[in-house]
Write a structure and sequence with these properties.
Layout (H helix, E strand, L loop, with lengths): L4 E2 L4 E2 L2 E6 L10 H17 L3 E7 L4 E6 L6 H20 L1
Antiparallel strand pairs: 1-2, 3-5, 4-5
Helix pairs in contact: 1-2
Length: about 90
């Protein structure tokens, strides 16, 4: 069972499709920013013991398939990744 992970008494395989959309669907994600955001999203997800299985960065939205352990709420992980990535963007791209 390669799609399942284990904790002490359970097996789990929780994968969630997540879509981020900028305000008013602006085309804010240019090519330079898209190259930078992939590793940032992976690093932030790893801090919450999650993995990003797939991801697509489009000019006006972001698609991700995120594997989240059951001990974390989906909204907690998504809020963390969105918030911290926004801080990275502001600090590096102003």
């Amino acid at each position: 069972m390669k799609d399942e992970d284990r904790q002490s008494h359970t097996r789990w395989g929780c994968k969630y499709p997540v879509v981020f959309i900028p305000k008013c669907r602006r085309k804010a994600l240019n090519k330079g920013l898209r190259r930078y955001l992939g590793p940032v999203f992976r690093e932030l997800a790893a801090q919450k013991e999650c993995t990003i299985e797939e991801g697509h960065l489009c000019p006006d939205h972001v698609h991700m398939l995120v594997k989240i352990p059951p001990k974390y709420a989906v909204s907690q992980v998504v809020g963390f990744v969105k918030g911290k990535s926004a801080i990275h963007i502001v600090r590096n791209y102003g």
